[in-house]
Specification:
This protein has 244 residues and is of the alpha/beta class. The protein has a domain of 168 residues. 33% of the residues lie in helices and 12% in strands. The protein is built from 7 helices and 6 strands. Strands 2-1-5-3-6-4 form a 6-stranded parallel sheet, sandwiched between helices. Helix 2 links the parallel strand 1 and strand 2. Helix 5 packs antiparallel against helix 6 and helix 6 packs antiparallel against helix 7. The longest helix has 22 residues. Bound molecules: zinc ion (ZN). Zinc ion binds next to loops. It comes from Pseudorhodoferax aquiterrae. This is tRNA-uridine aminocarboxypropyltransferase. Keywords: S-adenosyl-L-methionine, Transferase, tRNA processing. Pfam families: DTW.
Length: 244
C-alpha cells in the first residue's frame, strides 16, 4: 500500500500541467517504492519501526515531486505519517480534522525566534501530561523561504505550540546544497522530534535510513555500483541487530 507521500506525489503528478523533469536521468525507470533506479533500490532494506508519534507533512508545491525529498523517508518508517499539499488560499478539510482529533497533541516544528514567545516550547510533553495524547509533529516541507511562508500564512496553525529544536550537531544531509550546516533536511528534523518524544530507537532508525538512501542516491547519480557493506549499511544493520 503506497504511503502518504507516495500518494501525494501521484496526485501532484496528475495535476501537473507540464511534466516535472528532474535534472538528471529522469527518463530512466524508477522503483515505485523508493524512487531510485531498480539497480539501486533500497526497498529490501527498510527497517521496521514502531512509534507512538505521528508526522504531519505540509508540503510545498513541487516538493513531493523532487527525487531528493526526504519526507518520503519519514513515511517509510513512521506508520502514522500524513501528507498534505500546502496552498496559501486553501486548506484541506482532512488536515483540519486531523489537527482537531483529540488523540493527537500537535506541535508545529519551527524555529522559536519566528513565533510569539508564549507559543514556543523546547520539549515534548510526556503522554500523561498531555492528557494521553500522542505527539503529532507538523513539519513544513519545502525550501526555507517556502517554510517561512507556510508558517506565516497558515492561520489554522496559529493556535498550536511551536516546537523549537535545539540541535546539538550539524546536518549530515548531502543531497542538496546549503550554505549553512544548521539547515536540516525534513527527515533529520523528524528524527530530532522522535528523540524528544523519547523514541530514540525510531529516531536512530530514521537517521540511518536517510544515510542509506543518500548513499544509494549518490551512487546512482554518479553511476556507481552499491557496496552493500558500506558504512551506511553497517549502521542500519547494527541498529536492527540491537532491536532483536
Ligand atoms: Zn525500491
Amino acid at each position: 500500500m503506497p504511503h502518504a507521500v507516495s500518494l501525494l506525489r501521484a496526485a501532484r503528478l496528475t495535476h501537473s500541467v507540464k511534466p516535472f523533469l528532474a535534472r538528471r536521468g529522469s527518463r530512466s525507470p524508477r522503483c515505485a517504492g523508493c524512487r531510485l533506479l531498480p539497480s539501486h533500490c533500497i526497498c529490501g532494506l527498510r527497517p521496521v519501526v514502531s512509534t507512538d508519534a505521528g508526522m504531519c507533512l505540509l508540503m510545498a508545491d513541487i516538493e513531493p515531486l523532487k527525487p531528493s525529498n526526504t519526507g518520503w523517508l519519514i513515511a517509510d518508517l513512521v506508520a502514522d505519517t500524513f501528507a498534505f499539499a500546502w496552498a496559501r488560499t486553501a486548506v484541506d478539510p482532512a488536515l483540519l480534522a486531523l489537527l482537531a482529533d483529540p488523540q493527537w497533541q500537535p506541535y508545529v516544528v519551527f524555529p522559536g525566534e519566528y513565533a510569539a514567545p508564549e507559543r514556543v516550547v523546547h520539549a515534548v510533553q510526556p503522554a500523561p501530561a498531555a492528557s494521553g495524547r500522542r505527539p503529532l509533529f507538523i513539519l513544513l516541507d519545502g525550501t526555507w523561504s517556502e517554510a517561512r511562508k507556510m508558517f506565516g500564512k497558515s492561520p489554522y496553525l496559529a493556535h498550536l505550540p511551536v516546537l523549537s529544536l535545539q540541535p546539538d550537531r550539524a546536518s549530515e544531509y548531502k543531497l542538496r546544497r546549503s550554505r549553512r550546516n544548521d539547515h536540516f533536511c525534513t527527515s533529520e528534523v523528524a528524527a530530532m522530534c522522535l528523540a524528544l518524544a523519547g523514541e530514540e530507537q525510531a529516531a536512530q532508525a530514521l537517521d540511518a535510513w536517510l544515510d542509506v538512501f543518500s548513499y544509494h542516491y549518490l551512487q546512482a547519480r554518479n553511476q556507481q555500483k552499491i557496496d552493500w557493506d558500506s558504512p551506511a549499511h553497517q549502521r542500519l544493520r547494527a541498529l536492527e541487530a540491537s532491536t532483536v
